[in-house]
Amino acid sequence: QVQLVESGGGLVQPGGSLRLSCAASGFTFRNLVMQWYRQAPGKERAFVAGITNDGASTYYADSVKGRFTISRDNAKNMVYLQMNSLQADDTAVYYCNVRTLGGDSWGQGTQVTVSS
Length: 116
What we know:
The structure is a single chain. The strands form 2 sheets. Strands 2, 4, 5, 6, 9, 10 and 11 form a 7-stranded mixed β-sheet that branches. This protein is mostly beta strands and about 120 residues long. Helices cover about 0% and strands about 55% of the residues.
Protein backbone atom coordinates (compact mmCIF):
# COMPACT_ATOMS: atom_id res chain seq x y z
CA GLN A 1 0.00 0.00 0.00
CA VAL A 2 1.00 3.62 -0.45
CA GLN A 3 3.16 4.96 2.34
CA LEU A 4 4.46 8.50 2.75
CA VAL A 5 6.73 9.47 5.64
CA GLU A 6 7.62 13.11 6.19
CA SER A 7 10.55 14.36 8.23
CA GLY A 8 12.63 17.47 8.78
CA GLY A 9 10.23 19.75 10.59
CA GLY A 10 11.09 21.71 13.70
CA LEU A 11 11.31 25.10 15.35
CA VAL A 12 13.04 27.83 13.39
CA GLN A 13 13.38 31.58 13.80
CA PRO A 14 11.84 34.00 11.31
CA GLY A 15 14.10 34.29 8.29
CA GLY A 16 15.49 30.81 8.81
CA SER A 17 15.42 27.73 6.62
CA LEU A 18 14.31 24.13 6.83
CA ARG A 19 14.37 21.21 4.42
CA LEU A 20 11.51 18.75 4.56
CA SER A 21 11.79 15.23 3.18
CA CYS A 22 9.17 12.68 2.18
CA ALA A 23 10.01 9.01 1.71
CA ALA A 24 7.54 7.26 -0.59
CA SER A 25 6.78 3.59 -1.12
CA GLY A 26 4.04 1.28 -2.34
CA PHE A 27 3.63 2.78 -5.80
CA THR A 28 5.67 3.57 -8.91
CA PHE A 29 7.12 6.81 -7.67
CA ARG A 30 8.69 7.95 -10.95
CA ASN A 31 5.31 7.92 -12.69
CA LEU A 32 3.40 10.31 -10.47
CA VAL A 33 3.14 13.97 -9.54
CA MET A 34 4.08 14.68 -5.94
CA GLN A 35 2.80 17.57 -3.87
CA TRP A 36 3.24 19.27 -0.51
CA TYR A 37 0.34 20.67 1.46
CA ARG A 38 0.15 22.36 4.85
CA GLN A 39 -2.44 22.90 7.54
CA ALA A 40 -2.14 25.77 9.95
CA PRO A 41 -4.00 25.80 13.28
CA GLY A 42 -7.69 26.50 12.72
CA LYS A 43 -7.36 26.47 8.93
CA GLU A 44 -8.04 24.03 6.13
CA ARG A 45 -5.28 22.04 4.49
CA ALA A 46 -3.81 24.10 1.64
CA PHE A 47 -1.64 23.37 -1.39
CA VAL A 48 2.00 24.49 -1.14
CA ALA A 49 3.99 23.03 -4.04
CA GLY A 50 3.94 20.33 -6.70
CA ILE A 51 6.38 18.63 -9.04
CA THR A 52 5.80 16.58 -12.16
CA ASN A 53 6.86 12.94 -12.35
CA ASP A 54 10.14 13.72 -14.13
CA GLY A 55 10.90 16.82 -12.09
CA ALA A 56 10.84 19.01 -15.17
CA SER A 57 8.05 21.27 -13.94
CA THR A 58 7.24 22.70 -10.54
CA TYR A 59 4.41 24.91 -9.33
CA TYR A 60 3.77 26.81 -6.13
CA ALA A 61 1.18 28.61 -4.10
CA ASP A 62 1.59 32.36 -4.44
CA SER A 63 2.38 32.65 -0.74
CA VAL A 64 5.58 30.60 -1.05
CA LYS A 65 6.83 31.48 -4.54
CA GLY A 66 10.45 32.57 -4.50
CA ARG A 67 11.00 31.17 -0.99
CA PHE A 68 10.23 27.45 -1.27
CA THR A 69 11.66 24.93 -3.72
CA ILE A 70 10.28 21.46 -4.36
CA SER A 71 12.50 18.73 -5.78
CA ARG A 72 12.57 14.96 -6.11
CA ASP A 73 14.98 12.08 -6.46
CA ASN A 74 13.35 9.28 -8.43
CA ALA A 75 16.25 6.92 -7.71
CA LYS A 76 15.56 7.21 -3.97
CA ASN A 77 11.76 7.66 -4.06
CA MET A 78 12.15 10.93 -2.20
CA VAL A 79 10.58 14.35 -2.52
CA TYR A 80 11.89 17.44 -0.76
CA LEU A 81 10.74 20.91 0.17
CA GLN A 82 13.45 23.50 0.76
CA MET A 83 11.96 26.38 2.71
CA ASN A 84 13.85 29.66 2.99
CA SER A 85 13.00 33.04 4.47
CA LEU A 86 10.46 31.40 6.75
CA GLN A 87 7.77 33.56 8.28
CA ALA A 88 5.40 33.10 11.19
CA ASP A 89 2.59 32.47 8.68
CA ASP A 90 4.45 29.38 7.48
CA THR A 91 3.80 27.67 10.81
CA ALA A 92 1.79 24.54 10.03
CA VAL A 93 1.85 20.79 9.76
CA TYR A 94 3.30 19.93 6.36
CA TYR A 95 2.04 16.90 4.46
CA CYS A 96 3.32 14.97 1.48
CA ASN A 97 0.66 13.95 -1.05
CA VAL A 98 0.29 11.64 -4.01
CA ARG A 99 -2.78 10.84 -6.05
CA THR A 100 -2.97 7.31 -7.36
CA LEU A 101 -5.81 5.31 -8.91
CA GLY A 102 -6.84 4.56 -5.35
CA GLY A 103 -7.21 8.22 -4.49
CA ASP A 104 -5.25 10.72 -2.44
CA SER A 105 -2.68 9.46 0.04
CA TRP A 106 -1.10 11.48 2.83
CA GLY A 107 1.72 11.09 5.25
CA GLN A 108 1.43 11.70 8.97
CA GLY A 109 2.78 15.22 8.59
CA THR A 110 5.71 17.09 10.09
CA GLN A 111 5.33 20.18 12.27
CA VAL A 112 7.04 23.39 11.24
CA THR A 113 6.99 26.22 13.77
CA VAL A 114 8.41 29.62 12.93
CA SER A 115 8.89 31.70 16.05
CA SER A 116 11.45 33.85 17.79
